[in-house]
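call fold(seq) -> tokens
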Amino acid sequence: MSDQLRGKTAVITGASRGIGAAVAQRFASEGANLAISARTLDNHAILSGSLNETANLCRQYGGHVEVIQADLADEKSRATIIPKAIETLGSVNILINNAAAAIYKNLDAYTLKHRRLMTEINVQAPLDLIQHVLPSMISNRQGWIINLSSASKKHPTGPPYDLGGVRGVYGFYGATKAMLDRTTSALASELYGTGIRVNTVEPKAAVLSEGAEAVVGKILKPNQIESMEEMVESILFLSRCGIDHTGKNEVSLEVIDQNKLTVMTLDGEEPHPT
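ret:
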């Protein structure tokens, strides 16, 4: 542990499992006080992991961990996250918009219900949380906002088009991530000079969280996967980057290479054997 986030406070969505839970552990090991949020407080019917499990793990590092159960698809529910975090933590220095909905279907079968759900969770919810946290960050003249994006936003190349595997069914998911990227760059330009950095980061390859493994785990080859530790290391960097490092659409492994970062284990104790 190097206490890189000692004295900092962070809100992390989607923290019951996967990338969100891993970021929470690493941040806790680096001295941050946390407010973690997700829908799953205890047990999920299918996937492993819960908010309480993440909280118990993070509390071993000695910091404060506030658990906030909320549904990002519900406007009133997600509106409670930042006020509760500020009430318990005093202020919020870092916001990690990690949670996402991923429904993979061809567009000719994509229902309006699913389109609305994806847009609500992947675009509207992150912007709502940002709007809620900005007064605190602006008052402190300091803040780091990291929105998790995806390579699925890239346009397919062709013709001819090769849409084998999952690539042929994540068009709308990718569209929501493209919108999140553009929202991020707009916010960065609007907030420049306030001390608030706003960036996105996406995996270079797939990170096999519990949810991702359930959806695409059988399709991916070993060279298409990066470690959870690598993804988390890039997020940690963006949570303490300099004031002019803003408006970037970053890629995890490129962040590590360009900044010569040492990828550490999630407890921050030793280099990870990547």
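The first strand starts at residue 9 and ends at 13.
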